[in-house]
Amino acid sequence: MRAAAEKTRVLPLPCARLLSRAEAAAYVGVSPVTFDRMIADKIMPPAKRIYTRVFWDVRQIDSAIEDLPGGAEDAVLNPWDE
After folding, report:
1. Under a CB-based contact definition with an 8 Å cutoff, are residues 45 and 64 in contact?
2. Rounded to an integer, what distance in angstroms lies between the CA atom of residue 30 and that of residue 21?
């Protein structure tokens, strides 16, 4: 049972440099299906293949997140916040 629990770990992240699809999606904060769409749309980086497995590099994910539009300068001011 313990091996199954370790295999399906999702959080806390990033403990490992390379993440599985489910871990990478959780790291970004989206579902695996949405993560797949983000890869297809080139918003997120492609996977790295090691033998028969695929992994996503945390540093490449972080860089892709940094490149997303938006941020403090693009924030829409909400009059209710004042």
Report:
1. yes
2. 11
Nearest Cα residue to 14 out of 48, 66, 60, 72: 60
pLDDT by residue for the chain (82 residues), tens digit each? 445 545 555 555 457 899 999 999 999 999 999 999 999 999 999 999 999 999 999 999 999 999 998 876 656 666 776 6
Residue listed under structure tokens 């403990």? 15
| Closest by Cα among 41, 47, 43, 79 to 63 | 43
Intra-chain end-to-end CA distance of the chain, in Å: 51
Residue 33 burial by CB count (10 A; 0-12/13-18/19+): exposed, middle or buried? exposed
For the chain, what are the domain ranges?
17-67
Q: How many CA atoms does the CB half-sphere of 20 hold within 13 Å?
A: 10
